Each structure stands twice: as structure tokens, then as C-alpha cells.
Amino acid sequence: MPYSEPTNLAVVACPGGEAFANEVISHLRHMYKHRFSLKSDVISKRYGLERESFVQRINLDNDLRTSDLCIRGAVDKYRTPTFKVNTRFTHFANGEFKCELLDTVRGKDVFIFQDVENHEKIALNDGKNVMSLSVNDHVMSLLVGIDAVRQAGARQITLVVPVYPYSRQHKKKGREGLTAALLGHIYESMEVRRIITLDLHSREIVNAFSHTHLENLHASYQIIRELSKVIDLTKEDLVVVSPDTGAIDRNKFYATGLKKSLAMIYKERDYSIITQDAKNTNIKSIKLLGDVKGKVAFLADDMLGTGGTLLKAMGFLHEQGATKVIAAISLPFFTGNAIQLFDEAYEKGLFYRIIGTNAVYHEELLKREWYISTNVSGLFANVITRLHHEQSLSDLMDNRTIIDKMIKASRPAETKDEQMAAPMGISVNNCDPLA
After folding, report:
1. Omega before 6 within 30 of 0, i.e. cis
2. Strands (E), 270-385
3. Cβ pair 160, 187 in contact under 8 A
4. What's the rounded mean pLDDT across residues 404-409?
5. C-alpha to C-alpha distances, 127 to 84, 121, 156, 325, nearest whole angstrom
6. Fewest CB within 10 angstroms: 23, 122, 132, 214, which?
7. Mean pLDDT score of the chain, rounded to an integer?
8. Long-range CB contacts (< 8 A, 24+ apart) of 58-64?
9. H/E segment holding residue 129
10. Could you tell me how far CA 301 lies from the centroid of its own chain?
């Protein structure tokens, strides 16, 4: 594989996915440089070569293989891959989008990034216009991006969408469409080979694909890592609480990994009422199956929109005697006036902290004392390099082993021998995917 330029891995960032793509690219550059340094040290020692001459040999090989006359950069030093493709997105007055690739992607393995829940101000038309885009705008800009990459002759296309758009429209209840599956069919018809997403709302969506592979990542390790910084997992009496029946499997995973008890909140809903915002929901009554009195309550869910369900659940647990209420949300949308309502709930002491990921770009959340952002860009970078180099994803998809090691490492060993044997915590963000 090439450890310096030229590399066939290319990243195209749609307007909403620019921020997340830049973070992932930062990890990719670090990982490739680290691997290059490690490889050159080991090989040069093994074959008795001077490190500088070995690096020069690699660069010579890359220069010979490139279609250009030669590659820019020093011949005796590491050449950092560019990865990012210069792209221009144009937004016309009637709402249409146009995507132009300013660099070649012919024959490359292209990863297209998009964050459909990014509602911050975005610069378009070469910075001439700044506007907030809707989910539909983001989906359309993604589609024109896919088409531009396909028309430009990319070898294969992978979508990196931490939030799978329309993922909540996955069940048919009468005369309604299956929009999550519809988008899947569109991606597949556009020759998308893979989709990388985070904590997919429903496993049923995977069944919509015949040929496209969907890699559903989980942020559980990153969330537990942040949780261990907020509270002492070895001393606090913690109970994992599922906020509803739909999240029971997710919270069972956390309870098993943390070796803690599991409780569940049961909500009775009036489905003749449509939830409008965090205060006006269709929840009629709440019951708790379990005990949280005098304990730290930890809840986990995949996404948070208006936040009404979570606010009621956290307030209920506070009433039931929980000393602290901590929630973990993989995809923190915080739509409408959700941030304001959570500010009010925090001032009343209804919850302690909310842990979310940077998979959704949200500037206001980062300013809040009660919000903790955990970085999953390293996880995505690991997955991207492994897919690009056709390596296994098993240990990244099922992270129970590294979670178990982290939990054991946080517990003080009773004897010196046990302390020597205690495994050290492993960070997914720092794993070397090319080893």
C-alpha cells in the first residue's frame, strides 16, 4: 500500500459535512504519518538500510507509479497525502444545488461526507452567501455530490453520514411511505458501494439494500470513556435506565459492559396527540421498573430531537430519588427550543450532565456547562482506512473487549501482581488501523 502520495483515498465534503470531514481528515493524516514512521523504522532496521535512503526509495517508487511526471515534495521526507478534494457547491436562487469537483477523482476510492442535521450557518457560492440548510437541502446536496463523483469516474463511492436521513420513517403503519428505504434505493441506484453511519435508529433499514453495504458504528466506548471522567465508576452506585422499551437493547449493552443493574421507564402515550415540542408531548403517564433511589441514573438513547421524552424521563428519575441523572445521546439534534428547555431543567437540578458526540455539528451545545462532547472522528477515520485497505472491522464494530479492558483498568488492583496484570485502557481514536 502507498504510505505517502499518491494515495487513492479521497474525501469529498458536502456543505453540512465539512466540519466533521475536516476532523476525520486530521486523524487520517496523523495515522498515515505515524504508520509511515513506524514502517520505515522497522524495515530499515530489519534490512540494514539507512532510514533516509529507505524513505527515498518509497518516494522514488511513488514517483514511478504516478501518472504525473513526479510528485511535489522533498524526495527524502514523508509526503503527507492530501485526501480532501477541492469542491464547489453552488446554491441557486430557486433552491437548486450544483456540485463541481475541482480536483480529479478518477479511479479513486471516494468517501462523501454529509451531516444532514447541521443547521448552523454555512457558507455557499464561494462564501458569497451564508445560510442555514434543512435536512432536505442537505440530502439534495448529497445526491448532486454523489452524481458529480460518479460522473467524474471514481472507482467506488462510500457515503459517510453519521445521521442517516429519515431513519425514523422505517415502519409502515397504514398509508405512509418507507422513506428510509426509499433513500437507500436511490443511493444504491447511484452505485454507492458503502454507507457508514452512527447508531442507526432501526436495524430494519439495513434490509432495504441489496448490494450496498451499511456499516453501523457505535459510540459506546467513547461515551463510557466520558462517563468515567464525570463519575467514579468504581465508587458510585450506578444504575442504567432504559428511557423506553425501544432503547432496552442499547441500555442492556451498557449495563452488561459496566456490570451494573438495569431499570426501565415505561411510558403510556396517547397517539391521538402529535408531539409538538419538548413540553407538549403525547406522554400521559410514566412508570419505573427498578430502583434508582440514592443512585446515579444513567440513560442512553440514539438521538434527541425536541428532547421532550428525555426531559420527562430525567425529571421523573429525579423525583424517584436519583442523586444524579446523566444521559448519553449518540446523535444530539436539539431541534427547536430544546437547548433553552434543557437550560431550565438544569437550573432546577433535574439532571447533571448530557454526553453527546460531535457527529452532529452544534456550536451552541458546546457552550453549555451541562453538555459534554465526545469525539468520534477517530473511530470514523479508523473505519475508513480499514475499508480502503480491505481490512477487518470486527473489533471496531464490536467494542465490548476494549470497554471491558477500560472498566478493569479503572478498578484498583488489590495486590502488586494483580496490578501488573491489569490491562491498560485502549483508545479507539489512537488505535493503529493499519497494524
Report:
1. yes
2. 283-289, 296-304, 324-332, 353-357, 371-374
3. no
4. 78
5. 18, 11, 30, 43
6. 132
7. 87
8. 58/3, 58/4, 59/4, 62/2, 62/4, 62/5, 62/6
9. strand 129-131
10. 14
Cα–Cα–Cα angle for 392, 148, 180, rounded to 5 degrees: 60
Give pairs for 208-216: CB < 8 Å, separation 24+.
Answer: 208/178, 208/180, 208/181, 208/184, 209/184, 212/184, 212/187, 212/188, 215/383, 215/387, 215/393, 215/397, 216/397
Q: Are 330 and 219 in contact (CB under 8 A)?
A: yes
Count the helices and strands in the chain (H runs, E runs): 12, 16
The pairing of strands 156-160 and 129-131 is: unpaired
- C-beta separation of 159 from 141 below 8 A: no
Please report, for residues 247, 333, 410, 425, the alpha-carbon distance to residue 116 in angstroms, rounded to integers and kept in the order given: 23, 10, 37, 33
Q: 331: which DSSP letter?
A: E
Q: pTM of the entire structure?
A: 0.88
Residue with C-alpha cell 490491562? Answer: 423
Question: In what side-by-side order are the strands of the sheet with 371-374?
Answer: 283-289, 261-269, 238-242, 296-304, 324-332, 353-357, 371-374
Listing DSSP states for 284-315 in one string gives EEEEEES--TTSEEEEEEEEESS-HHHHHHHH
Give the CA distances from residue 51 to residues 2, 4, 47, 59, 67, in Å, rounded to whole numbers and listed in that order: 17, 15, 10, 13, 27
Of 212, 203, 119, 115, give the one whose Cα is nearest residue 165. Answer: 115
**At a CB cut-off of 8 Å and minimum separation 6, what does 94 contact?**
none
Here the cell at position 58 is 518509497
Q: Quick one: pLDDT band at residue 5, thresholds 50, 70, 90?
A: low
Q: Contact at 8 Å (CB) between 380 and 431?
A: no
In three-state secondary structure terms, 22 is helix
Taking alpha carbons only, the member of 205, 433, 227 closest to residue 329 is 227
Alpha carbon 79 to its chain centroid, in Å, reads 28
Entry field: residues in the chain: 435
Summarize pLDDT for 128-179 with one digit per residue, the tens: 999 999 999 999 999 999 999 999 999 999 999 999 999 998 888 888 889 9
